[in-house]
Amino acid sequence: MRDLWPVLCVAAVLAALAVFGPFLAPNSPIAIDIPNRLAPPGGQYPLGTDAMGRCILSRLLYGARWSLGLAFLVSTIGLLAGSLVGLLAAMGGRTADWGVMRVTDIFLAFPDLVAAVVIAGVLGAGTGSLIFALTVTGWMRYARVARGIGLGLETRGHVVQARLAGLSAPAIARWHYLPALVPSLTVVWTGMLARAILGISALGFLGFGVQPPTSEWGTMLLDARVHIRSTPLQMIWPGMAVVLSVLAINIAGDMLRDALTEKEAPA
């Protein structure tokens, strides 16, 4: 457990930022203050204001709920869907395995972001389209990991004995497959969480994500792009929020993987 305390700290900080960030905001994220538009950091606006005079710090804190919260939702839905698909491929026999994995390969053939942009463009801009697009393009990695681990368990003694004892497939999956899947899928989930933050910010920057006046880091980058020469801090602040969040999650994921690997290594 000692090896995991940095991971838990990162998780706690990001969760607290998403849940309590709006309560820490010094101003309203949508309050317009035209006389103070494009103001530098200081005074009432610690990080300055945007082109409409809105407090950048407040918008960052409110935006964390959307950027981090939606990323958590997208990656968790992908985890559940992908795990079920992978288990179906591993436990359903050769025909089911072949069919499921060919579908998975088709989805993997397309770049994630490009496919997400196409799907969001067809469905129209909005939060629902964003969630659907990123979920559809993100479940495959969970499925491949779950399938690989599931196939490795097929010939294990305890699984064979459970099958001979007459346990149903759902019971075998619940008691024998899921405990083996959780560590590896948790590591995959941390990586996909970071990818989801990048995807949400990218779609927001392209105009397909959370719509104004709601603040989200990607949409903040979109609003600030026309002022990048005159007031570059407008883009630097949300860009740093995305980069630091993704970096922290990736480092935490590496630590989690190392801790789990050491735990499973034979003495």
Q: Largest sheet, if any?
A: none
Low-confidence stretches: none
Strand content is under 5%
Number of strands: 0
CATH architectural designation = Orthogonal Bundle
Q: Judging from the principal axes of the Cα atoms, what is the shape? A: elongated
The succession of helices and strands, N to C, reads HHHHHHHHHH
Highest CATH level, the class: Mainly Alpha
User: What is the arithmetic mean of pLDDT?
Assistant: 87
Under CATH, the topology can be stated as MetI-like fold
Secondary structure: helix percent: over 70%
Please tell me about this protein's structure.
The chain is mostly helical and 267 residues long. The protein is elongated. α3 (93-108) runs antiparallel to α6 (140-153) and α8 (169-205) packs parallel to α9 (217-224). The chain contains 10 helices and no strands. It has helices at residues 5-24, 56-91, 93-108, 112-123, 127-136, 140-153, 157-164, 169-205, 217-224, 233-264. It has a single domain (55-264), classed as MetI-like fold. The two termini are 18 Å apart. The longest helix is centred in the C-terminal third of the chain and has 37 residues, at 169-205.
Secondary structure layout plus pairing:
Layout: H1 5-24, H2 56-91, H3 93-108, H4 112-123, H5 127-136, H6 140-153, H7 157-164, H8 169-205, H9 217-224, H10 233-264
Helix pairs in contact: 1-2, 1-10, 2-3, 2-5, 2-6, 2-8, 3-6, 4-5, 6-8, 8-9, 8-10, 9-10
What's this model, at a glance?
This protein has 267 residues and is an all-alpha fold. Helix content is 72%, strand content 0%.
Key structural traits:
10 helices; mainly alpha; MetI-like fold
